[in-house]
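hey m, so remember when u said the tokens were messed up on ur end? i reran from scratch. heres the input so u can diff it against urs
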Amino acid sequence: MEEIKKVVNGKDIRCGARCNYCKFTLSSTGGGGTGHLLRHVKSCRHKALAASSSTQSHLQFDSNGRVTTFVYSADVARTELCRLIARLDLPLNIGEQPAWEDYIRIAFNPNYTHVSRQTTTRDLENLFELKKSVVSDLLTHASCVCLTSDIWSNNAKEDYLSVVFHFVTEDWELETCIVGKRLIDCSHSGVNIAECIHHVIFEFGMNSKVLSITLDNASANSTVVDKLSPLILSYFGTSLLHQCCACNIINLIVKSGLKRIKSYLEDFKVAISFLNSSNQRVAAFKTFCLSVGKRPRKFGLDMDVRWNAT
């Protein structure tokens, strides 16, 4: 119930109450009882309909700290499920798994209905097109872009060429947009890589806005720049078009230095491989550390693709 008051002799006097469900007004004076109000609340048909509705409302704080009403939306839930799948590389059928349904229904929303793999696939495609249009609109306001590209392998042993645009907005904020993830199932030659990169640049209409292209120092990338230079109208010529990746240069310097102590590194690698080859050896090493008062730790082999792992 919501109190209804009127001013009498300069004072606020309660004269009635309004039902929050059906908006019916009942009399309720300051000295009167509230029994008739309670009976109306119990018998209010609109309240019963609201209670049986599948729409759930909760209170939440907005960005300004104000209390607002949160209403569960199945469309929003499906969109966020797609974002979760993309960010964590989850299977497309997770939305219809019984364990997932139990988790959502018990912890968050008892009215949750499962989402099939086919529906999730369509939602992912729609979300991709929506995000692509947002990126396209954002790039229309960029006077020039700096491009970076590299090839990565996923868990399915497939190679993808990534193309990333970096630019400064009108508010002087740095924006980074991943505009291309192209499957490159052919030879990683400079011609093939240049063709994929140019297709992405042409698709987003950035032919005349490329300020620089940053690539690693592989020999094929020199061919990439030679093939791309006549195809794109650089922002101010091609003198500064090709930029070498500084991290890759540091990587090459470190690897060159590690070659000087390769014989020592091989001894360490053999020892670590021997230690990790069985659980009994790991347990024996832990016992030894404890006996000499040292903290037990685990050793992992370095990774060649991470230059600072060694």
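this time it looks ok to me. The radius of gyration is 32 Å. if urs says something different then somethings off w ur setup not the seq
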